[in-house]
What we know:
By secondary structure, the protein is α/β, with parallel strands linked by helices. 42% of the residues lie in helices and 13% in strands.
Amino acid sequence: MKTIERVLHDVGSELKSLRGCPPSRLPKSLVPPPPAGPPQLAVVMFDGGRMMTRQPERGPGVHEQAWRETKNASLESMTHQRHAEDPRPELPLCFQEPEHVAELAGTAALPVPGPVQTTLDRASADDDHPQRLVRTCLSSLDNSKEFGLQMSREAKRRCLDQASQKAFIGDGLPANWTIWKKHFRDFVPILDFMHAVEYVYAAAIVIHAENPLVAWASYRQWAQLCWSGHVREVIPELLTWLDDHDLRPGQTLDEQHPHKAVHDAHRYLSNNASRMNYAVYRTQGLPVTSAPMESLVKQINLRVKGTEMFWNDGLKGGEAILQIRSAALSDDGRLKTYLTHRPGCPYVRRTTGTAYGTLNC
């Protein structure tokens, strides 16, 4: 086990150095070759996660355990097809299923009937969606500033910055849009639609707490307006309700305040309205949800989160496993390429050159 641990630390540290290199200085033998040309559609997605860490070198057991935020990114080349008009003007059936919507929002489902979505419905709904061709993944405990640099370098290595169509998808956290503004300004900024669904659903439940049927009808109306790109018709309704209950936008509410969900929904939609023109995005052939990113975070969590699972806080522990896990989940074979050619591989003659882990990039 100690040998496995040592190799994990070494490889993770080396991959960390690799991701700190500008594309022009990457050792060609240690990474897959860049694509022959830019894709038609490039999509960059960002999301946070969490992992449990402990302080190292404190003796046996777990010391100073704490949740640390992970930064995760998915950089994808995708198929692309423009449309003369919105190919999906109606709210998808999945966002009209009470149990599915409640699962997204993390609450109990309203006791109301919903449409039954068949396998055929799901298959036909995917026909106009951009499809993934190649995905590369990044994951780290670094701060947002450093992680944004890693994302930018990876996008350039993949020629995603040269794509004819580009989209950057994230939730409403300010850090997401700071990264977009600094490194991806020429990508179309898109708020993940699923997060908008969470907020309008929670607000509808609070506003119509006494009548589940009215709450569900209100949610569906607001979700359809958002889906159609008319979020600015929803915001005044929320503001009017807040005014009627002597609440002001921008004021701080206690977490237990009974009307906080409405206040938060108004803030969230107001702050992100410019990134919610979903009908326009679909007409341009762009995705409007970060479902692939949510899936990637779950795939990373399968390795790094679990009962009584703690990682040393730092490069030789949590950071190392994130580097290896994200490389393993990438579609370009980068982990296999690296392990095959790294100094010390039994199938490659050792060189007297600089060890990869100490490159000054």
